[in-house]
C-alpha cells in the first residue's frame, strides 16, 4: 500500500475554476445566485454524525463484513414525491434487504438513491424530435421533461424545489425507518399491495413465515432485541450539480470540517470523474462517505489516482468504487482494477451497478435493459472477486416499487410490454417483482 500524506484541500470553493462537466447553462445567473444564497442559509438535510456512522458501515462493507444495498429511481421527479410512491419504494428496498440478510446471514447497509436524485448527466446536450431541437432533460432540478422550449429552459428556482422535495422525502424516510413500520415483526406487511403470486412474491411469503416463527421463538425465550424494531436507512444521490452541493455544504461544529449536507452518501458519475475536474476537487474536500462510478474504460491507474486524491489518509469506509462495466466487459476489465487497487491503494468497498452498462434501445424506441444481462453482470462481478479473494461488497440498482414495464425479463415483461407502463423520466428501472427476484438471486450468490 502507498503512504498518503496529502491533506484534503480545505478552501471551501476549491472546485470553482476547474472544468465542471455536465453543468446546466443557467440562463439567469442573478437568479441562480439568489437561489443558492438562500440554500446556503437553509438547514442541512443530513448531519455529519449520520455521515460518520455510514462511513463506519461502509468500512465494514470494505472488510467483507457487511453488504451494501443501494437502490431507487434513476431520476426522482417532483411529481412522484407522494407518500404512496415513496412508501412502495422503501418497502421494496426493505424487502430486498430482508431477503439478503436472511438468505445470506450478512448485515445489509441500506442506502437509497433517494431524497436528492434529481439531476441527470446526459450523453447529448440536446434532444431532437422531428425538426425541433431543444436542450436535453437534465432532471427536475434543472428543467422539465415535457418537450417544449419553456419546460426545457434551465430554471435555478428548481434547485430550491429539489431541496424541498428532498426534505419532504427524507422526513418520510426517517419516519418510515424508525416509526414502527420497518419493525421486522411487520416484514409480511411490506408485501401488501404488491402482486404476491409471482415466484419471488411466494418465496417472500415463505421467508417472512420463517422469520415470524423465529421471532416468536426468540420472544418465547425472552429475547427481544431493540435492533429489530427499526432500520438504519441512509440517503444517497449523484453529486452532480456543484452549485447546489456547494450551497448545502456545512461545517461540522465538532471538527471544523466540511460535509455535504444534501445527503449521506454522494457519488461521482461516470461522466464527471475527470481527475482534474471540478467534481473530484469538490468531493476531495467533503468528509462524507463517497463513491466513484467506474465504467468499462476506467483504468487501474485512474482508480489508484482516485484513491490518492479522495482518500489520502486511507480512512476506512471513505471511498467506494461502483463498477458499471456491462455484462460483456466486467469479467475482462474488472480483475486488473481490483488487483492493483488491493495491492497499492487504501481499502475500498467494491459495489456492482449492473444497470448502466447494459442499456440498449428497443425497436419501439424505449431505452431498456434485460434482466438476464443485469444478472449476468452481477454474476461476473461476484466471480471476479471470488477468483481474487476480495469482497463483492454490494449492489447498486435503479428500481421502483411500482409495477412498471421498463426492463425486460424476470418472470414477466416482454419487449412488447414496454409501452404499457414505461414511466421513468430517464433510464429503465426494475419493477417490484424484478427487484425481489434479483435480491433472491444475489442472496444465493452471497451464500455461495
Ligand atoms: O442515468 C444515467 C445517465 O444519466 C443516463 O444513462 C443518460 O442517458 P442518455 O444516454 O439518454 O443521455
Ligand atoms: C448517471 C448514472 O450512472 P453512470 O454515471 O454510471 O452512468 C446514475 O447512476 O444515475
UniProtKB/TrEMBL annotation:
Residues 1-25 are annotated as: Disordered. Its EC number is 2.5.1.54. Binds 1 divalent cation per subunit. The enzyme is active with manganese, cobalt or cadmium ions. Residues 1-11 have a biased composition (Pro residues). InterPro entries: Aldolase_TIM, DAHP_synth_2. Mn(2+) binds at residues 74, 356, 398, 427. It catalyses: D-erythrose 4-phosphate + phosphoenolpyruvate + H2O = 7-phospho-2-dehydro-3-deoxy-D-arabino-heptonate + phosphate. Keywords: Amino-acid biosynthesis, Aromatic amino acid biosynthesis, Cadmium, Cobalt, Manganese, Transferase. Coiled coil: none annotated. One of its GO terms (molecular function) is 3-deoxy-7-phosphoheptulonate synthase activity. Phosphoenolpyruvate binds at residues 113, 270-271, 293, 324. GO terms for biological process: amino acid biosynthetic process; aromatic amino acid family biosynthetic process; chorismate biosynthetic process. The keyword 4Fe-4S does not apply. It comes from the Bacteria. Its cofactor is Mn(2+); Co(2+); Cd(2+). PANTHER family: PHOSPHO-2-DEHYDRO-3-DEOXYHEPTONATE ALDOLASE, PHOSPHO-2-DEHYDRO-3-DEOXYHEPTONATE ALDOLASE 1, 2. Belongs to the class-II DAHP synthase family. This is Phospho-2-dehydro-3-deoxyheptonate aldolase.
Amino acid at each position: 500500500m502507498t503512504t498518503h500524506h496529502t491533506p484534503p484541500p480545505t478552501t471551501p470553493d476549491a472546485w470553482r475554476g476547474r472544468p465542471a462537466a455536465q453543468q446546466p447553462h443557467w440562463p439567469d445567473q442573478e437568479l441562480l445566485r439568489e437561489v443558492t444564497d438562500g440554500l446556503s442559509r437553509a438547514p442541512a438535510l443530513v448531519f455529519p454524525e449520520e455521515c460518520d456512522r455510514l462511513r463506519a458501515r461502509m468500512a465494514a462493507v470494505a472488510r467483507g463484513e457487511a453488504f451494501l444495498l443501494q437502490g431507487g429511481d434513476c431520476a426522482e421527479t417532483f411529481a412522484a414525491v407522494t407518500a404512496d410512491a415513496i412508501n412502495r419504494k422503501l418497502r421494496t428496498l426493505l424487502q430486498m434487504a430482508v431477503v439478503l440478510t436472511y438468505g445470506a446471514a450478512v448485515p445489509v447497509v441500506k442506502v437509497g438513491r433517494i431524497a436528492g436524485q434529481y439531476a441527470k448527466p446526459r450523453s447529448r446536450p440536446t434532444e431532437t424530435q422531428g425538426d425541433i431541437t431543444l436542450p436535453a432533460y437534465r432532471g427536475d432540478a434543472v428543467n422539465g421533461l415535457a418537450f417544449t422550449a419553456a419546460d426545457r429552459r434551465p430554471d435555478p428556482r428548481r434547485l430550491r424545489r429539489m431541496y424541498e422535495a428532498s426534505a419532504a422525502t427524507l422526513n418520510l424516510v426517517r419516519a418510515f425507518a424508525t416509526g414502527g413500520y420497518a419493525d421486522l415483526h411487520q416484514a409480511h406487511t411490506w408485501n401488501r399491495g404488491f402482486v404476491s403470486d409471482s415466484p419471488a412474491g411466494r418465496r417472500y411469503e415463505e421467508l417472512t413465515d420463517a422469520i415470524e416463527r423465529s421471532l416468536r421463538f426468540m420472544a418465547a425465550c425472552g429475547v427481544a432485541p431493540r435492533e429489530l424494531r427499526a432500520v438504519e436507512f441512509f440517503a444517497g444521490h449523484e453529486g452532480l450539480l456543484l452549485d447546489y452541493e456547494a450551497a448545502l455544504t456545512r461545517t461540522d461544529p465538532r471538527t471544523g470540517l466540511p460535509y455535504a449536507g444534501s445527503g449521506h452518501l454522494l457519488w461521482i458519475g461516470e461522466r464527471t470523474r475527470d481527475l482534474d475536474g471540478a467534481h473530484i476537487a469538490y468531493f476531495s474536500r467533503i468528509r462524507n462517505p463517497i463513491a466513484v462510478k467506474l465504467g468499462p474504460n476506467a483504468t487501474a491507474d485512474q482508480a489508484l489516482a482516485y484513491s490518492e486524491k479522495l482518500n489520502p489518509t486511507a480512512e476506512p469506509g471513505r471511498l467506494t468504487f461502483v463498477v458499471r462495466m456491462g455484462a460483456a466487459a466486467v469479467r475482462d476489465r474488472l480483475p486488473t482494477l481490483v488487483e492493483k487497487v488491493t495491492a497499492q491503494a487504501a481499502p475500498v468497498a467494491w459495489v456492482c451497478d449492473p444497470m448502466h452498462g447494459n442499456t440498449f434501445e428497443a425497436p419501439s424506441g424505449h431505452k431498456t435493459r434485460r434482466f438476464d444481462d443485469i444478472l449476468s453482470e452481477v454474476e461476473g462481478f461476484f466471480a471476479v472477486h471470488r477468483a481474487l479473494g476480495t469482497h463483492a461488497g454490494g449492489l447498486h440498482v435503479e428500481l421502483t416499487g411500482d409495477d412498471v414495464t421498463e426492463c425486460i425479463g424476470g418472470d414477466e415483461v416482454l419487449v412488447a410490454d414496454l409501452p404499457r407502463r414505461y414511466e421513468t423520466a430517464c433510464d429503465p428501472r426494475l419493477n417490484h417483482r424484478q427487484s425481489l427476484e434479483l435480491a433472491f438471486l444475489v442472496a444465493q450468490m452471497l451464500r455461495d
